[in-house]
C-alpha cells in the first residue's frame, strides 16, 4: 500500500526540490500535496489521510511547532519529520515534546533525509503490522470467549441475562445478533458408521477435533462469521451470524449446509446429516431451538441429508414431542442417579407408548429405536459403559427387536446406569475436586474446558454438566472469576505492571484483559490500583496518626 506525504515550507523552491530529489516511489510514498504554512497543512490533513508530515519550523501564519502541537492535540495519526535552519536546542526540545519522529537541519542533506524517511516509514509499517496482528488476535480471543459462552447457553447451563457480569462487555453484543443454526450429526446407527463405533475413544476424539477444524476453516474461507460448537460425540452445532437486513433464504442456507457436508466428506471421509432450524435464532432462543432440531433429527429417519426443523407437516407431532420430553426427563434422572425418578419416567414412557400404539402403531418402533440410540449416546458422554458393554448394546440395537424387548431393554439400561451413577457419585465429587485444583494451578495460561475434562478423564459435555452441578457456575464463569479475583489482589498489593499481571492470570493480550476486568469490576486496572493503593496509604497514615 502506498503512503502519502505532505510537504510544508514557505519557500517554494524547497518543496519543489523535495518533490524532485527524494525517491518517493522507492520509499513507498507519494506526494499528496504541498502547503506554505501550518493553516494550509491542517486544512489538507482534515480532508485527506496523511502518513508522513515533512515540515519547516519557521513559517508565517502558523509555524511548524504550532502545526505539530495541533496535529497531536487533534490526534491525527501521522509521523513527523521537522526541517530547520536553526540549531537552537529549544526548538529541538519543543519538537521532541510534541512527538516529532526526527529533526533534520538545513541545508537539507538529501541522502541523509532519504535514510531518515526510510527508517521512519519502516517503523510505521512495522507498528501497523503489529497493530493489525494484535487486533486480529484480540478478535479471535473475543470470538473464542463468545464461543465458550454460546456452548453454555446452547446446553442450557447458564441464563443469558443482561445483568450477568460476564455479558456486560463485548459479549453483550450477542444479544443484538441473530444466527442461522445448522446441526450436523453422524447417524451412528447406520451401516456406514459401524467403523466409527469400533474406534477407540482417542481416535474418536481426534476425528471430532478434525471435523471442528474443517468446519471452521470452510466457514472462515467463505467470509462467514461463525461459531462451531461440539455438543457431544459425533454432533456439532454451527451458528452463522446473519445481517439483520438479510431475509431467511432457504436456498442460500441450504447451500451453506451442503458446503459443510461436502467439506467433511472430502477431508474427513465422514458422511453427516444436517438439520437446519427453520428461522433465524436469537441468543435467548438458542437452547430451545437446538433441542427442537436435535429432537427432530433423533426421531426422524435420515431419508434426506439436509432437513429443516420443525417439519412443515409432521404426523403425531404432539405425541412425539410429549414422548421426547418424558425421555429427556428420564435421561436427566439417570444422569443424577435418581432411581425413583428413573422408574417413574420409564412408567410414563410405557403409558405414552401404549396410547400412541393405539392411534399410530407404525410410529412406536422408530420412536423407541431413536430413544435408545439417544440414551446410548448420552451415556457414552458420561463414560458409563465399558467397551464390551457398549459393543453388546450396539449388537442388540442393530437387531431392531420387538416393542416389548425394547421396553425391557430401556428399563435394564436405565436401572443399571442409575445404580452405576450412584456408585460413581463419590468418584464424580473427587473428579470435580481434582479439576478445581488443576484449574487453580493453571490460571496463568489459556486453559480450555476440553483440556480440563481430559485431565480428569471425562467427556467435555459431562464435565461441563458436573462442574455446573458441583460449583453452581459454568467452567468459564469459574475460571474468569478466579482470574479476576487474583488480578484484583495483585493490583492492590503489588507494583507489577498491568501487562505483567495480565500474563500472570492467563491473558496474553493486555487490552483483552482490561476489557474483561472492566466487565467484572466496573473499573479499568489502573483506576482500580489507584483507588485501592491510595486507600492503603490513607489507612497507614491514620494508623501512624493514632499511634503518635
Q: Which properties best describe this structure?
A:
single chain; alpha/beta; Rossmann fold; six-stranded mixed beta sheet; 20 helices; disordered C terminus; cytoplasm; DNA-binding transcription factor activity; sequence-specific DNA binding
Short structural description:
The protein is an alpha/beta fold. Helix content is 61%, strand content 11%.
Structure description:
- This protein is of the alpha/beta class.
- The protein has four domains: 106 residues, 3-Layer(aba) Sandwich (Rossmann fold), CATH 3.40.50.2300; 137 residues, Alpha-Beta Plaits, CATH 3.30.70.270; 120 residues, no CATH class; 113 residues, Arc Repressor Mutant, subunit A, CATH 1.10.10.60.
- It has 20 helices and eleven strands.
- Strands 6, 7, 8, 9, 10 and 11 form a six-stranded mixed β-sheet that branches. A five-stranded parallel β-sheet has the order 2-1-3-4-5, with helices on both faces.
- Helix 7 crosses helix 8 and helix 10 runs antiparallel to helix 11.
- It is elongated and about 100 Å long.
- The C terminus is likely disordered.
Amino acid at each position: 500500500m502506498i503512503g502519502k506525504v505532505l510537504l510544508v515550507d514557505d519557500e517554494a523552491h524547497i518543496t519543489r526540490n523535495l518533490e524532485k530529489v527524494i525517491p518517493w516511489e522507492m520509499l513507498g510514498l507519494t506526494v499528496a500535496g504541498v502547503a506554505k504554512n501550518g493553516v494550509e497543512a491542517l486544512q489538507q490533513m482534515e480532508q485527506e489521510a496523511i502518513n508522513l508530515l515533512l515540515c519547516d519550523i519557521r513559517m508565517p501564519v502558523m509555524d511548524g511547532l504550532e502545526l505539530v502541537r495541533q496535529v497531536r492535540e487533534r490526534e491525527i495519526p501521522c509521523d513527523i519529520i521537522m526541517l530547520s535552519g536553526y540549531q537552537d536546542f529549544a526548538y529541538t526540545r519543543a519538537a521532541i515534546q510534541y512527538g516529532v519522529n526526527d529533526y533534520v537541519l538545513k541545508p537539507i542533506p538529501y541522502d541523509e533525509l532519504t535514510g531518515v524517511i526510510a527508517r521512519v516509514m519502516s517503523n510505521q509499517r512495522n507498528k501497523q503490522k503489529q497493530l493489525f496482528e494484535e487486533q486480529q488476535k484480540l478478535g479471535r480471543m473475543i470470538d473464542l470467549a463468545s464461543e465458550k459462552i454460546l456452548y453454555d447457553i446452547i446446553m442450557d447451563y447458564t441464563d443469558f441475562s443482561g445483568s450477568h457480569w460476564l455479558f456486560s462487555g463485548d459479549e453483550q453484543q450477542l444479544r443484538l445478533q441473530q444466527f442461522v443454526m445448522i446441526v450436523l450429526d453422524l447417524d451412528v446407527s447406520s451401516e456406514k458408521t459401524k467403523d466409527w463405533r469400533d474406534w477407540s475413544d482417542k481416535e474418536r476424539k481426534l476425528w471430532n477435533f478434525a471435523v471442528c477444524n474443517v468446519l471452521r476453516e470452510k466457514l472462515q474461507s467463505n467470509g462467514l462469521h461463525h461459531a462451531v460448537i461440539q455438543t457431544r460425540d459425533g454432533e456439532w452445532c454451527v451458528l452463522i451470524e446473519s445481517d439483520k437486513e438479510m431475509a431467511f433464504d432457504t436456498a442460500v442456507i441450504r447451500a451453506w449446509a451442503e458446503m459443510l457436508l461436502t467439506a467433511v466428506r472430502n477431508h474427513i471421509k465422514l458422511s453427516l446429516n444436517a438439520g437446519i432450524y427453520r428461522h433465524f435464532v436469537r441468543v435467548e432462543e438458542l437452547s430451545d431451538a437446538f433441542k427442537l432440531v436435535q429432537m427432530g433429527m433423533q426421531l426422524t429417519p435420515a431419508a434426506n441429508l439436509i432437513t429443516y426443523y420443525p417439519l412443515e407437516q409432521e404426523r403425531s407431532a404432539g405425541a412425539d414431542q410429549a414422548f421426547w420430553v418424558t425421555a429427556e426427563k428420564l435421561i436427566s434422572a439417570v444422569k443424577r442417579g435418581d432411581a425413583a425418578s428413573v422408574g417413574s419416567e420409564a412408567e410414563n414412557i410405557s403409558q405414552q407408548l401404549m396410547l400412541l400404539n393405539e392411534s399410530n402403531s407404525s410410529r412406536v418402533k422408530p420412536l423407541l429405536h431413536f430413544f435408545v440410540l439417544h440414551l446410548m449416546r448420552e451415556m457414552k458422554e458420561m463414560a458409563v459403559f465399558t467397551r464390551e458393554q457398549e459393543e453388546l448394546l450396539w449388537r442388540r440395537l442393530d437387531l431392531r427387536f420387538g416393542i416389548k424387548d425394547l421396553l425391557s431393554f430401556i428399563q435394564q439400561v436405565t436401572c443399571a446406569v442409575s445404580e452405576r451413577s450412584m456408585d460413581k457419585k463419590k468418584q464424580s465429587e473427587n473428579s470435580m475436586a481434582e479439576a478445581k485444583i488443576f484449574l487453580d494451578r493453571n490460571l496463568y495460561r489459556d486453559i480450555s474446558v476440553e483440556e480440563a475434562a481430559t485431565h480428569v478423564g471425562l467427556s467435555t459435555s459431562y464435565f461441563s454438566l458436573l462442574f455446573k452441578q458441583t460449583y453452581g457456575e459454568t467452567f468459564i464463569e469459574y475460571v474468569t472469576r478466579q482470574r479476576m479475583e487474583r488480578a484484583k489482589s495483585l493490583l492492590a498489593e503489588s507494583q507489577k505492571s498491568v501487562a505483567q499481571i495480565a500474563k500472570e492470570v492467563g491473558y496474553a493480550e493486555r487490552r483483552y484483559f482490561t476489557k474483561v476486568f472492566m466487565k467484572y469490576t466496573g473499573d479499568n486496572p489502573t483506576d482500580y490500583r489507584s483507588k485501592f493503593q491510595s486507600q492503603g496509604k490513607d489507612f497507614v497514615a491514620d494508623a501512624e496518626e493514632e499511634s503518635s
